[in-house]
Every structure is written in C-alpha cells, then in structure tokens.
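Redox-sensitive bicupin YhaK (Pirin superfamily) structure dump, as promised
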Amino acid sequence: MSNLELDPQEIRCGAEAGADGEALMGREVPLGGPRAMTVSRTLPGVHRRLIGAWCFVDAYGPQRATMRVPPHPHTGLQTVSWLVEGEVLHRDSLGSLQEIRPGQLNLMTAGRGISHSEESPETVLHGVQLWVALPGEHRQTGPAFEHHPALPVLAGPGFEAIVAMGSLGGVESPATAFSPLVGAEITVDGTCEVPLSPGFEHGVLLLDGAVERLEAGPLVYLPPGRSALRLSGRGRVLLIGGEPFGEEIVMWWNFVGRSHDEIAAFRKDWMEGEGFGAVEGFDGAPLPAPVLPTTRLKPRGRVRQPFRNV
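structure tokens r here:
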C-alpha cells in the first residue's frame, strides 16, 4: 500500500525515550477515489515515529470498499501486508502476481528500489499495511517479494499467535527480516500472558472483539523491559515490536532514505522512469510523485518530542 497524500509532510523524529502506555492516535487518510477506503494511520504519529524498525501502520476496515492503488515506488523498507478479511491482488516490477487472503503474508523488500500496485474488487476489507525500515547495511539490497500462505503459531493458555514476522516466544517466522523484531496476530480467548522480548519496544493494536484496556483505533506503545503482555477478553490484536532503531532516517512519500538529496534523487528517478522497473498488467497509469517541500528534509531519530503518559 502506498502513501497517496498529495502533500506528504516530512516525518520528523526526536530522540527521547518512551513512556509507559503511550496511545498513538490515528488520523484518517483516504486512499483513492470516492468509492475507495479510508485508513487510520497510527504510525508515524505526532510524537513517535518508529517502534523497533516498524515505521508505518495503516489500519482499515472492516468496510465495504474497493482498493485501487496504482503502481508506485518504494526504497529502503519492507512492506508487510496483513488481512483480517477480504482479498488483495499484488503486482510488482519483479513480475510478481499474488493474491493475499486472511492469515497469509505478503512481504515485499524494496531495498534500492521497487514498484508495485495493489487492488481488490468491491468487497469487505479489513487489515493492516505496515512498513519496516531497513538498517543502513541492508537498505541497498536487491528488491524481493515473498508470499507465505502458512505461518507458525505460538499457542498458550488463552491465546494463539500467528507469527508473521520475526520471532515470538521461540517461534520464528520464515519471512525475511533484517533486524530483530516481531509481528504477530494474537487471538485472545480469556486471560493470557503472551511472552515478550524485554529488549524490544512494542506496539499493540486492537483488530476486533473486546480486549480489556484496548480501544478500537489507537496503537498502544510499550517501552522495553516487559517480559510478558497480559491480555483479557475475546478478540484479535496486532503485536509489533523490535529492538529500538538507532539510526536517523528520512521518510517522505513512499521513500525511506538518509538525506534530502537522496530522497530528491529517488523522486527524480521515479518521475523519469529510472531505477524502479515497471508493473505489468495494472489497468492505469503509475502514481506521479508529489512536489518536494520547499524546506530541506532532515534525518531524524525515533521520537519527535517529549510526550505525556496516558
């Protein structure tokens, strides 16, 4: 999924440590025309911009909608597509053509550059689109695509967790990851304790149902130091996390880079048809890149400024 904003703002980050229980409130972002869907973007947020290497979280649905995201570029990141309900067709400049359904993982590594599209018929759509920032030593890696129709499950009293990315409680996903992290869908049925890596910071998002201390909408940030996540109720939640990302990055439109000049070069290449390949089979033109802001983009750290506890 793309950032389709016509005037994307620089995503600025500070370098302060987190507070317990920070609620990252989403903002509504429309994707496409009048019949398209609206997503709730909780990451990057007003204050916090990364959770581990996770740098982007769009949640959508359940809503009846048509997804139509024309070909667009990415650099320096991985896209992680996760559905709770519906179906989405992925095309990319490597020639990949892959439908994704609930419980399956589509993982695209942009590296030095890739382009892709996503679309669906009018149907009920419910899911999340996430990005993972690639660390410096891997951000120029070659583009790649993976589809994982079956993923490992961690089960314990009162819960089952599908491990989509990284590892959780000793269960490891087969998907390629370039930094220590976790991404999992947890089904809660009663009261449970889900094991966590104390060195990770985490984010928790309610997908459906009713789980105590979680509301529909916000992504709840948890700082490092926790060895377990206690949940109670009946529903599904998304868990993301990882070691705090120590690098400063520039995020603008669909690019992750390290400087203004690098982002400007990515934009120029895309507009001139260089470096990102072509997506075959999509009925429509590629997305043009927005105009760069008049001020220079600056690399920033993990958070923008100090924030209050909630």
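The chain has one helix and 21 strands.
lmk if u need the other ones
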